[in-house]
Amino acid sequence: MLARRQPFEIGGVRIAPGSRDTLSLSLPGQAPYAPMSVPVHVIHGRRDGPVLFLSAAIHGDEINGIEIIRRIRHTKALNRLRGTLVCVPIVNVYGFINHTRYLPDRRDLNRSFPGSENGSLAGRLARLFASEVVDRCTHGIDLHTGANHRVNLPHVRADLDHPESARLARAFGAPVIVDASLRDGSLREYGMERGLPMLLYEAGEGLRFDALSIRGGVRGILNVMRELGMIAGKSVRSRENQVESRSSQWVRAPVSGLLRVEVPMGARVGAGQRLARLADAIGDNEVEVKSPTAGIIIGRTNNPVVNGGDALFHIASVENGAHAERAIEQFQGLHIEGLGDGDFADPGVI
How many angstroms separate the CA atoms of 53 and 86, rounded? Predict the structure, then answer.
């Protein structure tokens, strides 16, 4: 007879095996009469398995991940979950309420880990999330979008030299995987240093829901959970529909002006190819913006009013541009049209 699983403990709450619960982690408030908290939903399976956390809105204006987590929570596949799923849809509650990326102290939460109980507001929130969530898990997926009027092509960032992270990044099924270095103070750096394989999913734009990005995120997380043996079935992906990039770079505005973009998101570009034109307010003094390298556009600004030095286009270097274009087209067709397996048959999940 199998030993009964122990309850999962978080925030002073015990969740029994085979059950789920929603709780709140109390935050340092700005006043005693205005308490704030981080919502957490835990699904604790009856059978042993990995403990995976999903986090979103670590930047308060990046809301696609909130909807992705909502849909994951209502997926029928979780009814027979192995292991434990910890869902934190809004990490930076302060920024979310104020429609901003940052905390009230103007710090970036994703540069504040591991944090400190006696530090700044950002440091205290980082320490709370690290100790109550990350330290109790074995794997993590952090959900992001573009920021500051930028939009990102759906892609996964991971350390491809870390075997388990690379395996899960490929299982996710995004069209582009970027081998991204760890940034000081980031959640991904903290998790990796603690031995947690970590993925970062980038897709869409801040303060906007994007159907393709959300569908891709839901399917990708379910693929990872299948790969980990947390839910039944095999991941819905194909290596032929993915491309890996070992480096990426931003193209910045050479001058200030109004930007007229000439290439779409996900386009294959060549070194020296014109990406856009910049001109002053009356249309004179036009300057061309050219790509310094060959690759795929995985991010760009949506704001036509730019200053010299602003980031305009994010280009991922790839060995086979045609392969990358096909992977992106197949991903878009799959998720725009809503084709897929039974996990997406329930309208509440799509």
Answer: 5
Separation of alpha carbons 165 and 196, rounded Å = 9
Q: Which two tokens stand for residue 124?
A: 């205290």
Q: Which two tokens stand for residue 29?
A: 């408030």
| Cα–Cα dist 328/171, whole Å | 16
In a 3-state reduction of DSSP, which class is residue 13?
A: strand
The burial of 181, by beta-carbon neighbours within 10 Å (0-12 exposed, 13-18 middle, 19 or more buried), is given as: exposed
Where in the chain does DSSP place strands (E)? 8-10, 13-15, 19-27, 36-44, 47-56, 82-88, 139-146, 150-158, 176-179, 198-205, 243-245, 248-252, 257-261, 268-269, 274-279, 287-290, 295-301, 305-306, 311-316
Cα distance between the two ends of the chain: 39
Amino acid identity of 170? R
Task: Determine if the peptide bond prior to 114 is cis (ω within 30°).
Answer: yes
Q: Enter the tokens of residue 68.
A: 């992705």
189-222 per-position pLDDT tens digit: 999 999 999 999 999 999 999 999 999 999 999 9
**Quick check: 107 and 122 in contact, CB under 8 A?**
yes
DSSP per-residue codes, 21-85: EEEEEEE--SSTTS-EEEEEEEEE-SEEEEEEEEEE-SSTT--HHHHHHHHHHT-GGGGG-EEEE
Q: What is the pLDDT of residues 225-236, one digit of tens each?
A: 999 999 998 766
Q: What is the tens place of the pLDDT at every residue in 145-181?
A: 998 899 999 999 999 999 999 999 999 999 999 999 9
pLDDT digit string, tens, across residues 49-107: 999 999 999 999 999 999 999 999 999 999 999 999 999 999 999 999 999 999 999 99
